[in-house]
């Protein structure tokens, strides 16, 4: 873990304890899963209100209009965000709020990418109610929880490089993130211009800004950097 990451996480743990987490935002596009999780949290933690959003865009709009929650539970795969993008984007809006990634995908590389991007923890959707509640409580007390059997990297330099790269990507604006996603899909500037209904010159301006922010010289390098932290794809 990097010194910067330890500092951010220490700040998060000092900010609140599990008992002080009173408002939670669940971001998951599966209605049954979302409703069941909300009910579980209300009962287990005595919460009166649990906010829900079905997409990353809806979550960002809620944060804009209703303010920051005390904690976020984020699905790995959303209609408008896959992989680490959700965490990277939310980290920019919620620097001190614990974000828990929840998924059925327990691949080690994905867990590492999520933790490097700033997740407080990563938990399986198949956990029992008791294990889920215990994991969340520990995270909200400042602990970092990952699935049993997960072996984090012992290379601190690699961890630091991943975390730094995630911070660079978090500096992108929503429009720049959309353009980068399309670049990673192999779209040319003209196609991006058409898809986003903006001038091709504007696309070029955004790409120049993207390259500067993530310290990439070519489109291929930008794609490789995004892929290295699983920014847009879970696997």
UniProtKB/TrEMBL annotation:
* 4-aspartylphosphate modification, residue list: 75
Please give the Pfam families that the UniProt record associates with this protein: GerE, Response_reg
Can you give the residue ranges of the HTH luxR-type domain?
165-230
Tell me one GO molecular function of this protein.
Answer: DNA binding
Which CDD domains does this chain map to?
Answer: LuxR_C_like, REC_NarL-like
Residues in Response regulatory domain copies: 23-140
Picking any one GO biological process from the record gives:
regulation of DNA-templated transcription
Q: What keywords does the record list, in alphabetical order?
A: DNA-binding, Phosphoprotein
Q: What is this protein called?
A: Two component transcriptional regulator, LuxR family
